[in-house]
Design a protein that fits this description.
alpha+beta; C8orf32 fold; 2 domains; five-stranded antiparallel sheet; 11 helices
């Protein structure tokens, strides 16, 4: 046998690694397809739900008010009998269960999902304590070239006494905050807009790594310009993102391993594209008659 090609039983560690990577690639491909179908079905569900709640010809402000009106006085909602059986990150659950629409986090999830499906640009806003613990969750909607605040828990678009929509920075003024919240029945006045965040880093499986502190140090302003709300708060999109990322990584790794096998280790292997091309040519080429 020529020295340029090794025998099949050589390089067992590489071959084991090669087949494991192929298996993982197949799993990642299947996961990408499954999560993609899941995400498409969620988007279609939300689009249909939004169409039933928001009039098609509405202005952006009217769309916000229509969603809040549905949250205030929509049809009777389902009652939770087993809270552990539902997910705060499942749009179908947050939109349909009365108890979830009363919790600030899941109520904001419901508003964000419907408003995005209605064509609005929205994002999450976490109100933090001085210790940077979340005490309330609201939403920001981009209206009239400004990010104005909507509180889905209280079903209101925050306005001052003159009816002007208010931004986060305006609500940092104690006098304006007092004026706006006095119009809201039973509003909890301990909420403050002095300390806030847009991304719920606690939703990442990276506890103990001080992710927020490191991002604040090396990428100042990242929280303002990167909207990770959809990634962190919708399970179907998170799974799609993770599976597609894994698929791309494993595909690149397989290409690198294939190059190493062909040009460094000289290992004979199954070349899918070459064999597919031969099979295609054999199938479509007329046989020669001697």
């Amino acid at each position: 046998m020529p020295n340029s090609e090794k025998r099949p039983n050589e390089h067992p560690i590489f071959r084991r690694f090669w087949w494991i990577s192929n298996l993982l690639l197949i799993v990642a491909l299947a996961a990408s397809v499954a999560s993609g179908v899941w995400e498409v079905s969620v988007r279609e569900y939300l689009r249909g739900f939004s169409d039933a709640v928001v009039p098609e010809a509405s202005t952006p402000v009217d769309k916000v008010e229509a969603i809040l009106a549905w949250m205030r006085s929509g049809p009777p909602r389902l009652e939770l009998t087993q809270p552990s059986g539902v997910s705060l990150r499942d749009p179908q659950d947050t939109l349909n269960y009365r108890q979830l629409l009363q919790v600030c986090g899941s109520a904001t999830n419901a508003f964000l999902n419907l408003s995005r499906s209605a064509g609005l640009e929205t994002r999450r806003l976490l109100l933090l304590t001085p210790e940077r613990q979340t005490m309330h969750v609201v939403a920001e909607v981009f209206l009239d070239r400004r990010w104005v605040v909507v509180d889905p828990t209280y079903r209101v678009l925050l306005r001052d006494g003159k009816g002007n929509m208010l931004t986060r920075r305006e609500l940092q003024n104690p006098a304006i905050f007092e004026e706006a919240t006095n119009l809201i029945p039973n509003y909890t006045k301990i909420y403050s807009y002095q300390s806030f965040a847009h991304v719920r880093v606690a939703g990442l499986p990276l506890r103990g790594f001080q992710v927020r502190q490191k991002l604040d140090r090396y990428l100042p302003g990242w929280d303002e310009y990167l909207d990770w709300s959809l990634l962190l708060e919708r399970r179907s999109f998170l799974y799609l993102f993770v599976s597609v990322t894994a698929l791309l990584f494993l595909t690149l790794m397989r290409i690198v391993l294939g190059w190493v096998a062909d040009h460094r280790l000289r290992i004979s292997r199954f070349h899918f594209r070459e064999n597919l091309a031969r099979a295609t040519a054999a199938f479509f080429t007329s046989p020669e008659i001697k």
